Amino acid sequence: MLSLAAAADSFQALDLIDKIQRLGVAYHFKDEIENILQRVYNDDDHTHFFDQNDRFKNNNYADLCYISLRFRLLRQAGYYVSTDVFKKFKDEKSEFHANLASDVQGMLSLYEASYLGFCGEDIMDEAMGFSTKHLASMLTSCSISSSLVVQAEHALAMPIHSSVERLYAKQYISIYQQLQADICQNKTVLYEFAKLDYNALQFLHQKEISEVQAWWKHLNIRSKLHFDVRDRVVEAYAITNSINFEPQFSLERKYLAKLWNILTVIDDAFDVFCNLREAGQLYDAFQRWDTQSTNELSPQMKVIFLEALKLFDEIEKELIKGASSAGASYFRNQMQLHIKFLWEEIKLMLSGSMPAFEEWFSITIQNGGHYIFLIVQTMNMGELNTQKVIDWTAASMPKIIKYSNISNRLAGDIASLKLEQARGTKVQCVPCYMRDYGVSESEAIENFQKILTKLQKVKNEEGLRVHPVPMRIIKNILNFNRALALYYIKSGDGHSVSNGRTKQIITSLFIDPISE
User: Which GO terms describe its biological process (predicted)?
Assistant: First the structure.
């Protein structure tokens, strides 16, 4: 049906890979894509490829669209490619040639590549500014086709590297249909395949949501507690679906969604509804991890503790069955650490004084949940890969997790700032930073945004193939960031307040199929 191997040259192969990835069906061609990218990387040695020689002078290798596409696809896959490849396109003033702006496909490709820059790669910042400026001007241009305007509009709103794969595919499939109609007036095999695959996966995801909803309904925890538990089953599932959407990760998705809901209840208990004594008793109970030692707990905290342990026990059994006993032990240890940091947070929040920003931040970035979610994702990866994850995180927090935690905390606190202020919460990153550095709220947020931009570049570099764990694990960490950015940054706190944009996203992903 589709043959990557039949591509006539590297550009044709990379162009097809790009389409397959955008349409959300790349998981069907995982090995073929990996082999082609490996071949392209090896054939076009990045240390010699763009030397001033005859090979470089070949038009194929001097094409902005091809060079940008190759750069992006290889960096996305974890291969290092030098930014020197873009120097060819700069003039004597070290600015991008103005005539490049007339190459719409080149601008689109350069724009998407610019999101893969590392710290210190100024040329990538310049590429982003240059391509963004010219793509924006195309939106009102009468000299380019409507299909190119649609592509430019979509790229500016949803850059590939920042997007959740499933949501991107849903939108791109309709764009691809329009592009193919403009070219050949009929539907292609690739379009039909992508549409059928999307709808089939959506049906699977609907079944998974129903299973998690049935579990939550049976749990009936809302009727057992005196405080208003957030009922966010579908929202939690949407976040876990954004980490892994492929059919082989069905079990992990369901358990991650359940885990997210239970952790939300625990988080609410610590942050909002229990006093310091109750919080301390709940913390002690989790450190003992014994269902028989619940006498000190209030009835409300006892319900939370027992229901949480019931789910945690299920997860441990699945980890033992699909991975190893080491994975189960690691999961328990990380859960206890997560509760410990929640306890440290609540002590500072209820201390009566605002802590120093560094003190508060050093605690809050520890409970991002990355370790817990990572180990659950190894359920079906086997003992060897599970042990690799454990060994990788045992000595110290890997940089990619550390920077992801920092990003999630800063972005989350910015997004939930107004909601927390309405609740009366005074201890948060923004107010602590304002007090310590003598800045206004808007200045604090602006500084955090600058940090987030730099952290994205650091995470790009940490996404290279330099880690002793499968690249799938690295991809999952980055996907977790993308999911939280989608539901928190752009929607405010889109998990706590799930109407508006969050509802639209969920409807698009899980309710509305792709029709003719």
Answer: diterpenoid biosynthetic process
pLDDT bin (cut points 50, 70, 90) of residue 7 is low
Residues 6 or more apart whose Cβ sits within 8 Å of residue 350: 275, 276
Q: What is the DSSP letter of 90?
A: B
Q: Which two tokens stand for residue 90?
A: 């700069």
Integer Cα distance of 49 and 43 in angstroms: 9
* Sole residue written with tokens 């539907």: 187
Give 294-351 pLDDT, tens digit per residue: 888 999 899 999 999 999 999 999 988 876 788 899 999 999 999 999 999 888 888 8
Q: How many CA atoms lie within 13 A of 391 on its CB side?
A: 10
Q: Which domains does the chain have, with CATH numbers?
A: 10-187 (1.50.10.130), 195-495 (1.10.600.10)
Give me the half-sphere count of Cα atoms (radius 13 Å) on the Cβ side of residue 30. 5
Phi, psi torsion values for 115, nearest 5 degrees: -80, -5
Please work out, in degrees rounded to the nearest 5, the angle formed at the alpha carbon of residue 246 by the alpha carbons of 309 and 202. 95
The structure's pTM equals 0.91
Output helix, strand, coil percentages for the chain, rounded to the nearest 5.
Answer: 75, 0, 25
The residue written with tokens 């990003």 in the block is 407
Reduced 3-state DSSP string for 259-316: HHHHHHHHHHHHHHHCCHHHHHHHHHHHHHCCCCCCCCCCHHHHHHHHHHHHHHHHHH
